[in-house]
Amino acid sequence: MTNLSDYVDLSQKSIWIAVGSIIFNPLFWNIVARQEYKNKVLTKLAFGKPYLGCYGLAFTIFSLGIVRDHLYQKALSEQPTLPALHYTEFKLLAAVCFAVGGILVVSSMWALGVTGTYLGDYFGILMDEKVESFPFNVTSNPMYYGSTLSFLATALWYESPAGLLLTVLVFVEYKIALLYEEPFTGEIYAKRERERAAGKGKQIEPKGSSTAVRSTRRSTGGSGSDEL
């Protein structure tokens, strides 16, 4: 009889390090972004320049993503493989998932720009119009879905059941993150509209989007008007 332990080796330290990295990243950017919104921590560290603070956070998030992906691949290389995933069809599926995932991630970043992708609205850098072009006309959360597809592609390529389980973890974590992010970001823009209506709109506003902003890379914030 086949046991789960035959295909997922939980004794390997690398898989737990990968799990920790996967869980850590969204927690990090959400906590830091909310501290920025409430206390302007990064803006103060950036000499009062919100754009500089946002670029610094963007670099940090991007770097953490590279580290996470490396740890994920290292973990899979030390895990057992599933012979059924060795067929050419699964290799082709992996290539398709990687290509589609990459297109979703890159095109969403292109559509939103650096500040739109990396939590600029928490710095007061709000977008004036909702982005409805590709890939937002396909899905409201292209960065999250694209990232999940990339994890799935890697798992299939490595023929790794452990990778498939970690991909499920990534998908569930992103879904949970959206429950917190989207309401928070939605309230940021609702507050902007209320202030505009009252003649108090003073935010920094480049071209771009509202709800679509957060939906790419990590999507939006989340809690409600009481926290704003």
What's a quick, concise take on this entry?
It is built from seven helices and no strands. The protein is mainly alpha-helical and 228 residues long.
Provide a descriptive summary of the structure in words:
The chain is mainly alpha-helical. It has seven helices and no strands.
Structural class: mainly alpha
- Given as residue ranges, the uncertain stretches (5+ residues, pLDDT < 50) are 209-227
Query: Could you give the order of the helices and strands?
Result: HHHHHHH
* Biggest sheet overview: none
Strand content: under 5%
Query: Can you count the helices?
Result: 7
Number of strands: 0
Shape: elongated
* Global Rg: 19 Å
Indicate the mean pLDDT: 87
Q: Kindly state the percentage of residues in helix.
A: 55-70%
* Distance linking N and C termini: 55 Å
Keywords:
228 residues; mainly alpha; elongated
Give me the secondary-structure topology.
Layout: H1 13-39, H2 41-45, H3 50-77, H4 88-117, H5 142-157, H6 161-197, H7 211-217
Helix pairs in contact: 1-3, 1-6, 4-5, 4-7, 5-6
